[in-house]
Structure formats: structure tokens, C-alpha cells
Design brief:
By secondary structure, the protein is mainly alpha-helical. The protein has a single domain (4-196, 206-404), classed as MFS general substrate transporter like domains (Growth Hormone, Chain: A, Up-down Bundle). Helices cover 78% and strands 2% of the residues. Its main location: membrane. Keywords: Cell membrane, Membrane, Transmembrane, Transmembrane helix, Transport.
Amino acid sequence: MSDSAPLLLRHHRPFLAFWLARVFTASGFQMLTVAIGWQLYQLTGNVLDLGLVGLVEFAPRVLFMLHTGHVADRYDRRRVAALCQSLQALIALALVLGSATDNVSRELIFCLAFLLGAARSFEMPATQALLPNVVPPGLFPRAVAASASATQAATIVAPAVGGLLYALGSIWVYGPTVALYVIACGLTLSLDARQQVQQRGRATLESLLAGIRFIRSRPDILGAISLDLFAVLLGGATALLPVFAKDILLTGPWGLGLLRSAPAVGALLMSVWLARFPFERKVGRTMFTAVGVFGVATIAFGLSTSFWFSLAVLVVLGAADMISMVIRSAFVQLETPDEMRGRVSAVNGLFIGASNQLGEFESGITAHWFGTVPAVVLGGVGTLVVTGVWIKLFPSLANRDQLHSQPVAEAPAASAAPIKG
């Protein structure tokens, strides 16, 4: 099985289309992130704005959380994801026009960041819930790792390319992202997927809250996604990378691009390994160990004044984060019925968004209060504290042996209709 499974994934056409769509979407988002962060810091010179833009992008995930999962379960997930990718292409186009006419302002960046967050808040649960419809259950753990490798491969290349292109002008970054999102949209629509869609009807409070109730009934799932929320929220330092690149490590846009790519290098290497050799035993202990390594790497990065050492530490940080992400994503999807996956993915997406975008806001605030280096070091210490506390709060998760403990219930035939591309 270990020799044949990767081969099957490589020859599974729907998964290849899904994989390529992830590459182009991730590339577009990472290039946008690098350009927006650098341009905003050039415009205002205020480190607090780097945190605020993360908060603005995160806000739609809170506002629309219940509806994003409902949409992913009630409508064709391919079309939902493609529509979101089209909106992101329009956002990039607006930045092209704004840069060409020298009309990019702080206010425009914040408005577009909100729209970007809204598009991604609907895209994430649809895309996460779509993968089990694309590949058979036996290949799913490897498909999660391989899918993550697509995102990380793009995350390695795109920020570095974005940083280099930004030296020629912001329009040289925003322009290509339009094409990337358009290609991703076409690939998503071409997917051959089988989905159990509930009968469309008016959204009720009961149906909207079903994902939250399901997660609360599964302590392992609740513990895993909340661990990611608090550990990465405290330990995240990506929002402060422009400050490290410019003021501490004394490099420019190209250096910022490399710093943003470094975690993805570690994540890519680890995801390729996990696609070949997935964790099958002692997954709980492995996940907690990975989160602890993430915290230690965060502390080391905060204390570093060497550009190359900082890159190496960020590689380790990315590899540790990938282990935690693959374990969490695989068992959440495997233990969730298909008709519930959109709503559960929406809640999971909120936790992921909180650990990333809200973590960027937390980093900006603490850096504003205490300074950049103390903010990162304290965040890494906080991650280690959270890891220890969660081991005590969720002992069954810490002692979990395998990813999938029981068969996933199928969608009821009376209330579901298959979608086949």
C-alpha cells in the first residue's frame, strides 16, 4: 500500500485538477499578501497597521461563519469555490488599476482586505469539504498531505517571486495574480466530484449551528482545533516579518519574500514525506510534540539577528506546523459525515483564521506595546504553555493512537442528492 498509494494519487485525474487549483490559488494569495504588506508599511510606516489588516481580513470569517458552511453543504462545492476565486481575481484587478493610477491608499487596502477575507471565508469550507468527494477514503490521509504540499510549494515560490517583482513595481505583482485566480477557477469547475447535497431550503438556526454541536460532541476534534487556535495565535510571527526584514535583519523586499517562503519550505518537505509515509500510530502524541517544536522555533526566531539562521528556524517551524495540520485535518474530515462536512469545515476554518489573521493582529498589538522581539518571544512561550495545558484538558487526544476510530456515517438518502461532474 505504501508503494502504490502515491502512484494512485498521481494518476487520479480529479485529484490532479484539485491539486493544481490549490497551487494557483495559494500562489495568488501569497503574492497578494507580500505585496499588500510591503505596500501598506511603505504607505504608513506603522507596525500596528500590519496587525490591523490581518484583523480586517479575519472579520468576515466571524461574520459569515455559520452561513459559509451552510452554503458548502447546500450547493455544489465546486461552483462555490470557483465563485470565490473569481472574486479574488477581481480584488487583484482592483489593485492593478489602483497601482497604475497611483490611487492605492490605506483605506483601499483595508476595504479590499475585507473582501478578500470574505471570499476566502466561503472558499475554505467548500474546498476542504470537497476533497473527500474527489478521492476515495483509502487515499484520503495521503491526499491531505499531498494537497498541503501543493499549497506549500506555491507558498515557497510565490512570496519570493512576489518580493522580486515588487522591486519592479507593485503592478508587476498584482497583475499575474489575476491570471492565477482565473486559472484556478477553471480547474475547480472541471473537477469530477461526487457530493451528497442536502435539499435546499431556508437556513434555520438549527441547521446553521449543527457544525458547532457536532464539534462539541467530539472532544478529540474540539481539542485539536482549539489547540491550533491558541498555540498558533500566540506563536504566529508572520505579520511582523516586514519589520524583521527591514529593521532587524536589515534586508529588503527580496529578503521578506524569502522569510515568508521559509516556513513553506519546511512544510513542503514534511508534506511530501507524509504523503509517502503518513502517521498511522500515536498520532496524538505526535501532534502535541509538533506544536511544542513550533513554540521553541518561534522563540529562536524572535531572538535571532542572523538572516540565514532565521530562515533555518522558520523551516523547522513550518515542518512542525505541517505535522499538526495534516493530523488534525485528516481525522476531522474522516470522522465527519459528508452532509456535515461544510459546516464542520466552516468552524474549523474559523479556528484556522483566528490562529492566522487574528494572530497577526495579536502580534501587531503586542509589538506595539512591548517591542517586536519581546512580542515574538512571549508568543513562543505562550505556545508552550498552551501545549502543556491542552495535554491535561484533553487526555484522550494526547493518547489518541489512530486517525480514524470508526466508520463515517453516510448522508441520508432521503435528504441527499448526488452531484457528479
